[in-house]
Amino acid sequence: MTSIIATDAWRALAGYRNTTVSDTIADLFTADRDRFKTNSWELDGVLLDLSKNRIDDGAWDRLLTLAEASGVAAARNAMFAGEAINTTEGRKALHVALRDGTGIADPRVADDVAATMARLAAFTEAVRDGSLKGKTGKPFRHVINIGIGGSHLGPMLTAEALGDAACPEVRFAANLDGHDLALALADADPATTLFLVGSKSFTTQETLTNATSAARWLSEAIGSDAVGNHFAALTAKADAARAFGIPTQHIFPIWDWVGGRFSLWSSVGLPSAIAMGWPTFAAMLDGAHTMDRHFYDAPLKVNLPVRLALAGIWNINLEGLNALAVVPYDERLRSLPGFVQQLEMESNGKGVTQTGTPLESAAAPIVFGLTGTNAQHTFHQWLHQAPLGAAVEFIGVARPDHDLSGHQDKLIANLLAQAEALAMGTDGDGDVNRACPGNRPSTTILLEALDPKRLGMLLALYEHKVFVQGVIWGINSFDQFGVELGKQLAAHLIPEMSTASISSRTYSSSTAGLLDRYRSWREYTR
Ligand code: F6P
To answer: Whole-angstrom Cα distance, residue 469 to residue 364?
Structure first.
């Protein structure tokens, strides 16, 4: 068990855990034949099964008391009401307002959202039906999204999951590494390529470097005046986008009340909308709203995001499992682990609480993952037998959208088998090498289908899970100052990479030595 916070609710939980520490997951199933029924919750085709976590009724009672004592309901209401819950930056966190079908979010932003959605819808359909044309009068055949982090992961994940393969083809370039953009440009024709620059800040080095290279590639082929026809910006900094040469009618706003990793639902989702069509994108927004409405209305004890968050708290803080494997058994969700990784680790990977005091408890887990069954042939060995373990979140989809026989039942059988094996283990018939200790917790989220509604619900479930955990740990989940220092150091290093100039800064001998060898291998003259 890792450290916990010194409050009555945390102490009660830790004390209770000590009295039940020898009960295994297998014991819990033996003791309660209806355990699945009482430890799973379903909402509109999304089934959340928490029964294979080592959490009994007494632990659930205390976890729910912890959620109440931590003010989860009040924090949730403050988020929906548009209070500035991102206290370090004095900002609201109103991503729920971007998909607010039934009017539960702060109404002050509704008109702006509706106007922007209408513009996005029109632009999306104009790109897809070919009525929007490039400089030479041809419709677009490739759309390349340039953005990173929240301006990349969510759009790419949803485009991969729901894209309908209609023309144009949507591609993504995120990395500062030129190989990424080079690959996206490889067989594209400048005359039929549209670039979307997704950057809330319009200052991100990776994105601006890629956008500049893309503009050069375009200009060299069809003239520098092509930027106006071939670029659009998804940003909170319209002036910076205009200074880049992007015309106002191609600039789609996001607002300071939308955090980067929560921005998929805003203009940043435009590449995804183009990949799937506006009606599908809108249905995904509705799906997310279905989860928002449930999160907002449902009592904590039957609230899916709250239950999922509490199971995570139990595994991290009470069981000491500081890692979380996210394993979707659906190839279309191959980018989900990366999306959840940013969501969890950038939101709750903090060292201090809201009040600036050092964090007393473990918080965000190390998140990693891969699709099943590929994961079974990489890290599942470690999950089953290595002394340190991870909690696992399996995601399965009941109805496939391909018509190849002989795949789907095998696929989901494997998901079920992995979760069962982790929970129950085996003595290996006395062979220590084959023994798996079992008693390893997992959660299964089963979707009826991977349609826009269920995908929207799934992603909103994760967003709210992370928010609830942040509230319980006392963290501001909406800032990310930890990424700044590295950015600053890189800015100092960049001019020194290719020159022999002596830096006014001193680096460690390691950095100086590596820099020296890099310069010589690059054959920069000294
Ligand atoms: O990683 C830091 C971060 O600010 C993320 O939160 C964000 O998603 C990403 O960089 C990209 O930022 P921007 O959209 O401003 O380019």
So the answer is: 8
CATH number of 41-53+312-450: 3.40.50.10490
Task: Give tens-digit pLDDT for 105-149.
Answer: 999 999 999 999 999 999 999 999 999 999 999 999 999 999 999
- For 98-281, give the CATH class: alpha beta
Q: Looking at ligand 1, which atom is closest to the CA of residue 261?
A: 8
The alpha carbon of residue 49 and the mean position of all alpha carbons in its chain are separated, in whole angstroms, by: 21
* Residue 276 φ then ψ, to 5°: -110, -10
Ligand 1 binding residues, C-beta < 6 A: 148-151, 199-201, 204, 207, 260-261, 346, 480, 483
Q: What digits encode the pLDDT tens for the residues 7-47? A: 999 999 999 999 999 999 999 999 999 999 999 999 999 99
Rounded Cα distance between 96 and 264, Å, is: 11
Ligand 1 atom closest to residue 151's alpha carbon, by position in its atom list: 14
d(CA 39, CA 443): 10
Which is nearest to 376 in space by CA: 425, 444, 442, 329?
329
User: What is the side-by-side strand order in the sheet with 442-449?
Assistant: 40-43, 46-49, 442-449, 391-399, 323-329, 366-369
User: From the alpha carbon of 201, which atom of ligand 1 is closest?
Assistant: 15
Q: Look at ligand 1, atom 10, and give the residue with the nearest C-alpha.
A: 149
- Residue 23: CB atoms within 10 Å: 15
Cα separations (Å) of 234 from 150, 188, 197, 216?
12, 22, 6, 20
Angle at the Cα of 455 from the Cα atoms of 382 and 301, rounded to 5 degrees: 75
Q: Cis ω on the peptide bond leading into residue 190 (within 30° of 0)? A: no
Burial (0-12, 13-18, 19+ Cβ within 10 Å), 278? middle
Each residue's pLDDT tens digit, 152-174: 999 999 999 999 977 899 999 99
Kind and range of the H or E run holding 329? strand 323-329
Pocket test for ligand 1, best of 200, 244, 342, 346 (most atoms within 8 A of CB): 200
Residue pair 450/397 in contact (Cβ under 8 Å)? The answer is yes
Q: Are strands 46-49 and 442-449 parallel, antiparallel or unpaired?
A: antiparallel
Task: State the Cα–Cα distance between residues 32 and 24, nearest whole angstrom.
Answer: 13
How far is residue 215's CA from residue 135's CA, in Å, rounded to a whole number? 13
> Is residue 350 flagged as an active site residue?
no
Give the pLDDT band (50/70/90) at residue 503.
Answer: low
- Specify whether 464 is catalytic: no
The best mutation among 205, 480, 485 to test binding of ligand 1, ranked by most ligand atoms within 8 Å of the C-beta, falls on 480
Q: Whose CA is nearest to atom 6 of ligand 1?
A: 260
Name which residue sits closest to atom 2 of ligand 1, judged by CA: 483
CB 147 within 8 A of CB 234: yes
Q: For this structure, is 206 an active site residue?
A: no
- From 206, 344, 346, 463, the catalytic residue: 346
Q: Measured over all CA atoms, what is the biggest interatomic distance in the chain, rounded to whole angstroms?
A: 75
